[in-house]
Specification:
- The protein is of the alpha/beta class.
- It is about 35% helix and about 15% strand.
- The protein has helices at about 20-25, 45-55, 65-75, 95-100, 120-130, 145-155, and strands at about 35-40, 60-65, 80-85, 115, 135-140.
- It has a five-stranded parallel beta sheet with strand order 2-1-3-4-5, with helices on both faces.
- It is globular, with a radius of gyration of 17 Å.
């Protein structure tokens, strides 16, 4: 849904006992309008899914397929927040975040960030936080949780 699109009520024939509750309840979650998000993941499908979930709620999404591209995008695009996979070949998400945190504030070194990973043990979350992420999300990410995390990182909750 675009930034100017409005939700409309489903047609009367869609309102049956089997209609999902989400169709019946207006969207009242936090706004991601004009929030620029850098999504880093080596898997194209994962990047596309995250892009879709964020753009559905008004975010502007920039993607990168690896750490090198992410560091360039961070400096050029100046995102409001970063979402990064951990398990990437070469430079993983932990090392990417350590490199980002070594940058000065004017280079994006203080960008709010969440790790997104299939690694969901408490040790994995601790490692992500120690590397410099503020939050850790487990894959697959639920859209409502992703939106809440982004809003929280951007101080829009």
């Amino acid at each position: 849904m675009g930034a100017s699109a409005k939700r409309t009520a489903p047609p009367a024939e869609a309102l049956s006992d089997s209609a999902p509750a989400a169709q019946l309840v207006p969207d009242s979650g936090p706004s991601l309008e004009r929030l620029k998000v850098l999504v880093v993941d080596d898997d194209r499908d994962a990047r596309d899914i995250l892009r879709y979930m964020l753009e559905e709620h008004g975010a502007q999404v920039v993607t990168a397929e690896n750490a090198g591209a992410a560091l360039i995008a961070l400096r050029v695009e100046r995102p409001d927040l970063l979402l990064s996979d951990i398990g990437m070949p070469g430079v993983d998400g932990y090392e990417l975040m350590r490199r980002i945190r070594q940058l000065g504030p004017d280079e994006g070194g203080r960008v709010p960030a969440a790790a997104i990973s299939a690694f969901a043990r408490s040790e994995d979350r601790r490692r992500a936080l120690m590397a410099g992420y503020q939050m850790h999300l487990s894959k697959p990410v639920e859209p409502a949780e992703l939106r809440a995390v982004c809003a929280s990182l951007a101080d829009r909750s």
